[in-house]
C-alpha cells in the first residue's frame, strides 16, 4: 500500500471559449502523503477549484484534461476512465463543496442525501445506511441525529449545513478528502469549529486532506504543506512553517504582507496590496505570469522556461529571481 494518497504530475485543464482556448490549469504538480494536509492557496480565478474538480472527474465533457501521472489512493487513473472514477468517488476520495446551500438539494431530506450514495455503491440496506448516517452526523457534532434524518436543509443553520456536507463526504469512509473553501461563508467562531472538526476527523480516521482556500489564516491553522497557486501554476510549495517564516516567491511575499498583524499593524492604516491584475489565460503564455505585477521583474522574466529553485528540503519556487528573494 502506497503512502502517497495523491500524485499528479503536469495536470493541464483547458476550456474552449468564444475568444479561444482558456488554459486554466497549466502544468500543476500535486503530491499528498497519507495523513497529511496540503493547502492550495491563491487568488480567486487562479485555478484552485478547477484543479479539485478535475481530480474528482466532475468537469464537463468539453473540458480538455491531460496529465503525465495521475495516481490516487494507490490507483493509476492516467487513462481517466469514468467507470474507474465512479467506483472510487465517495469510497476512496470525497469532496466537500464550497457552498453547502447550493450543494444540498432543498427538496430531499438530509437522510436521503446522506444515504443514497452508499446504498448504491456498497449495497447497504436502508437500516444500515441510516445507522451510518446517524454515526457520521453525531461525529460532526449534529445533535439528535436520528431525528434530523427526516429534516430538510432549510431547517439547519449555515454552520450545521457545512457539518452535514462533511458528514456526507465521510459516508463512504474515503482515504482522501478534498475540501473546497469549506469555511468561506461562515463567521469566525463557526470557522474555527469546522477547522477543529477537520483536524479531529483526520486524526481519528487517518485522512489525507487537500484543502483549497484563499485565507492564509486557515492555512496556518491546519496545513502541513502549502502550495501557492497563481495563474494556473504552482508558484511556490513549502512546509507551512517555512513558508510563513521565509516566503521566496514575490507573489507569496505580497500575499503575506497584506495580512494585518495583531499588535503591529495600526488600526485604520492602509495594508499593502499587490498592484495590477491576474493575466488572462486565453491562448499561450510565455515566461512568468506574475512579471507584470512584480517589483523585481527583469527582461529575462518574459522568457521560457521559468526556472525551478529549491531553497530547502521539501520546497520549491518557480521564479527567475528566486535566489535573490530567498537571500
Number of helices: 12
The largest sheet, given as strand count, sense and whether it forms a barrel, is: 8 strands, mixed
Q: What low-confidence regions span 5 or more consecutive residues with pLDDT below 50?
A: none
> CA-to-CA gap between the ends?
40 Å
Structural class determined from secondary elements: alpha/beta
The portion of residues assigned to helices is 25-40%
In spatial order, strands of the major sheet run: 7-8-9-3-10-11-13-12
Shape: globular
Pattern of helices and strands: EEEHEEEHEHHHHHEHEHEEHHEEH
What is the radius of gyration computed over CA atoms, rounded to a whole number of angstroms?
21 Å
Q: What is the residue-mean pLDDT, rounded to a whole number?
A: 90
Q: Count the E strands.
A: 13
Share of residues in strands: 15-25%
